[in-house]
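Obj.: predict assembly geometry.
Materials: sequence records (below).
Method: joint structure prediction, all chains together.
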Amino acid sequence: MHRVVLFLMLPAVLFAQAPYKAPRTSDGKPDLQGIWIARNAASFDVTEIAQDRTIPYLPEALEREAKADRVDPIAHCAMPGVPRIVYMPFPFEIMQRPGLVVFLYEYLHNHRVIQTTPRDHVEGIDLFLGDSVARYEGDTLVVDVTNLGSRTWLDSARHMHSDQLHVVERYTRTGPDKIQYEATLEDPQTYAKPWKIAMTLHRITDPGFELREQECFEGDDGRSIHPFYRPASKS
Amino acid sequence: MSAIILFLLFMLQAAAPRITAPGGGNLADNGPKIDLEKAKAFKPQRTEFGHPNLEGIWQPRTSGAAYSVLPHPGGFFLGQGSEAGIVEGGVLPYQPSAAEQVKYRREHVELDPTGHCHYEGIPHALYFTFQIIQTSSKIAFVHENMHAWRIVYLAGEHPKDYSAWMGDSRGHWEGNTLVVDVANNNDKSVFDMAGHFHSDQLRVVERYTLQDANTLIWEATLTDPKVFTRPVKMRFPLVRAPKDFMIMESGCFEDEQDQAHLKGAALPDNHYNEEHEKEKK
Amino acid sequence: MRLSNGIYCVVILALISASTRLWAHHSFAAEYDGTKPIKLSGTVTKFDMVNPHSWIYVDVKDDTGKVVNWKFETASPSNLYRRGFKKDTIKSGMQVTIEGYLAKDGSPTANGQRLHMPDGTVIILGTEVNPG
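Observations (raw structure tokens):
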């Protein structure tokens, strides 16, 4: 009797565990296109989305941080780096073309145009948003990011890194309106071992929603100015 | 012997100041010749969703439009000179009060918004290399300068109560030409460094047409009833970037130091021609 | 034959240099003086490969022996990179000579044009911004 019940339950169990199969782009890749946004507090403190809620610091790296500048670089309109740009509380758009994936971030009008065919990373130049090369692994877009320099913070809680930081991002559709985002961070000068963050990216489904211009510039008094996020409607 | 003569002739013509009549022919004289008939006849490759394929990285040939959209000589830090500029007719038809403002701005270069790290707007952002990425509903323009981007929506309306440096762009296809209507422009972006400005009434209707697989023609009609007396037409060609060219990270956010050194700085007023059309009686 | 080959070479170079003439970024013409070229030698104290323009800082001894720290403005990081420049191409302590144009405001600031490296190579520092 048990076996019959279990057998009848099997399809339900299997079906419940079947991973979501994302629709495909015209060249057969998992379709990640649309406008997405993170809904968490990682931009304040990245340990919110870190595995075990902790960062495995090397003791000397913690000492370096304690002595470092106290002003968040984004307060001077610097670009926020990777992965912080992904969990800043602003929407971003993903576009895909054969051989390319394009991220258009509303925050500071940043962009990443990333090729999905192999190439060597650039060498000898620090880039705030790093140098990204991508590939598809089954249903996942994998983005390998190097050359991140050392001038960005991972959040406003002053979690820093060295120019050895290497980030591997993974984007996987888990539903019609969800992407599971994971990233592994390794930095032999800052962390005792690689560590991971994970969060959901939510599709913005408001009809007619479009990205708007967002800029930051330093006024004469050194205070950075961000125009209103969404200009209030006069009506 | 003939090689020596050729060389001397070349150096002479490179050194000589260029004084010619405005407007005419090609506009933006350092690029491939614009041939609108050829462009009309050209059959571009299409994307998998059936639109003419304009994708790629494009390098504009504006002959120094970032210095001035009008005919101007080259020179120290003024880049390439241009006999024709990129404006049809070689003049900008400013209303008299606006013409005064142009002069004032040229005498106060510290007011130039790109010096303050603002986005360049349309058409200014197009004077520098950019990348076009197309989907069936949206076309992205990605610029290295100021790490700017804009999305040309192939549907929808211009939003109300919205004003932006890069404006709001809505496009549609007319045959093989992408027509883009740019509205919602703020009054702060400028056409170039030579004081040529506009109001928030600026409307730019752009036309992108492939002349051949590696040549793109940009044309536009600009209207601004607050500063101009009539519509203005602009035009320049763009060439496809070499295969290994990559748009890289750039911006104006780390260590902008030039502003501090602009003490009452003025740009030379050395256009070739009368810049502003006299008002017709 | 040799003579005309030499001239041919110069013509090619002239053609190349004409098409890649230095290009202005916003207000350089207002900030620097084209009639005041300078050539200074000294010790590099810092090299900032930053946006929008990179800066090279050099300790220069004047005629009285006093040391003044000069700063030279160069192209953006991405444009330097396209010329083969890396972030460690210029190091603190290097003895260099830089040719450029003086800032109009009298400060020890110049727009860097050519950098003479210790090994004799000359690097163009010119401040192009995606020439168009």
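Conclusions so far: Confidence is low (pLDDT under 50) at residues 1-25, 128-132 of chain C.
To do: check interface contacts against the pulldown list.
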